[in-house]
Structure formats: C-alpha cells, structure tokens
Specification:
The protein is mainly α. It has one domain: Globins (Globin-like), CATH 1.10.490.10. The chain is built from seven helices and no strands. The longest helix is centred in the first third of the chain and has 18 residues. The chain is globular. The relative contact order is 0.16. The mean pLDDT is 90. Bound molecules: protoporphyrin IX containing FE.
C-alpha cells in the first residue's frame, strides 16, 4: 500500500506535478461562487504552499506537512458538508487532466475524505 501511494505521487509528476495540480485546483475553487468567499482574506501563497506539502505527504511523496492542524485552520468558518463536497468535486475535475488510473483517483479522494471531520467541524461538536 505505501508503495502504491508513492507511485501516485510519481505519476502525478512529483513536486512539479503537485504544484501544477494545486494551481489548477485553486483556479476552480476561486471561481466557484459558493467557495470563493471563504478565501477572500486568505494568503493564497501560503495556502498553496501548505496544500502542496499536504498533498505531497498524503500521496506518499518525500515531504512533511508543516502547516497548522486542519481542524484549527477550518473550524469556525461555517464550512459544511456541501462545501466540502464542492471542494473535492473540483479536485476530481482537476485530476482528470493528470492521466491517472481510476483507482488512483479513488485513492486520492478517499485519502481526503478521511479529513472531513477536521474540515467541517464534526470532530469538535462536543465543545
Ligand atoms: C480535504 C479537504 C481540505 C484540505 C486537505 C485542506 C487543506 C488546507 C491546508 C493545508 C491549508 C493551509 C493551512 C495553513 O495555512 O497552515 C488550508 C487553509 C484553508 N482552507 Fe482548507 N482544506 C480542505 C478543505 C477546505 C474547504 C472545503 C474549505 C472551504 C470551503 C477550506 C477553506 C480553507 C481556508 C479559507 C484556508 C485559509 C486559512 C487562512 O490562512 O486564512 N478548506 N486548507
């Protein structure tokens, strides 16, 4: 399993492939009227740098994510499952340009779905 996720990182094109993926992905996110307002005050350079690290690590590349914990970054922003699904939908559309196998795309989306409670705040619902 670790071997196959490392090959997804390679097949996307390694570090430069991840950079292209993140750029193309956020173009779609920022054009989505339901998602764009969340990013109105974000530092886009930092966001993309952190997202490159996050994706590279999540897909088995030689990177360690150095950003803030995802629940701390996302809680309190009013992000719902609807927004999360739009976000991963844009990732799916972007990944269509990267010549991956369907099972590789499934693995990427499954990896992100693991984070849903960190993003939409259900993991802190008792607070
Ligand atoms: C699996 C899905 C997601 C992942 C992996 C993810 C990952 C990240 C990462 C790594 C950062 C940068 C953290 C840092 O600066 O230390 C970030 C920031 C941010 N994310 Fe997400 N995110 C996800 C979903 C979403 C969704 C659905 C929204 C809103 C619709 C969202 C809104 C934001 C915003 C607004 C920031 C910028 C915070 C700031 O610096 O002002 N994210 N995200």
């Amino acid at each position: 399993m670790p071997e196959s996720s490392s090959s997804v990182y390679q097949r996307i094109g390694g570090e430069s492939g991840i950079a292209r993926l993140v750029d193309q992905f956020y173009l779609r996110v920022f054009e989505d009227p339901d998602l764009a307002p969340f990013f109105a005050h974000a530092s886009v350079d930092r966001l993309k740098a952190m997202q490159r690290e996050f994706f590279a690590q999540a897909l088995g590349g030689p990177f360690v994510y150095s950003g803030r914990p995802l629940n701390e970054v996302h809680h309190g922003r009013g992000i719902t499952l609807h927004h999360f699904q739009l976000f991963t939908g844009h990732l799916l559309d972007t990944l269509a340009n990267f010549h991956l196998k369907p099972e590789e795309i499934d693995r990427i989306i499954s990896r992100l779905n693991v984070e849903v409670d960190q993003i939409i705040g259900r993991s802190n619902s008792g607070e």
